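User: I'm new to structure prediction. If I give you an amino acid sequence, what do you actually give back? Let's try with this one:
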Amino acid sequence: EEDICEYNKARIYDFLWFTKKDFKAALLAYQYYEEYISKSEKFEYNFIAANRMISIFLIAPSQGFNKNKLCDLIRRILQQENNGGKAYYLIETCYKNKLLENTELINTINSILNQYPLNSKEFQLIGLYTDLLDKILCDENNLNKKAGDNPEVKKARKRKAQALLAAADYFSCEDAGSGFQKVHYMQKAVNVLKTISGTEEERKEILRAMAEIQKKSASQVPRYSVSIDNSEQVKALLDSIERLNKEELLYYFAMLPLFP
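Assistant: Good question. You get back a string of structure tokens that encode the predicted 3D arrangement of the chain. For your 260 residues, that looks like this:
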């Protein structure tokens, strides 16, 4: 396809920049990446191109790069179909390097989270987004990490707890292994809820359910017992000790290992 030409040219010049440290090659790579993203709808390639553009921009911000245009291209990529974790890393890069305003990043993350139902299997990805959202919200509102009273922070943390409880629901209690896995995610949800004020009753309810599951799972753990008759060995040991004199006996007990 025609639009891939700019991408390939950008990659070649980027390779020269990376290996030869030829700054002219870096400028050309940036130019071709920019041309490519401006007309491409391929998220995968756009994601790589945007990250490389950001890298070059941060290394040489005084080279006349148009930051506003770069930010517009990033917005264009983030408005494309959500591609899960890669979109997350692009947002995180923008936050760390102050390329987009916090309010814009907050709205973008909320928009992505709204695409996932409450019972989504993507609990790990939801956790990444909610943790980043939590961090940006605290930064934007000058809050400390314990800001469990802020409505937006509470909402983000509650969303993470819901994702963990959804993960727990994927495990049954039919066997001990599944039961313990279920409890594992429920405990993680409780730990998140501890950072949110006013969730005491919710936590108690989850803890009661966990106790029932743990009790049931523990009863399902298979138990094995083996009967071993050591009477002959004990008798032989006692016979040996009886033949020892006092000094030998003291030496024998002194050499026995001590257990805590």
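You can read the tokens as a compact description of the fold. Here is one thing that stands out. The longest helix spans residues 200-220.
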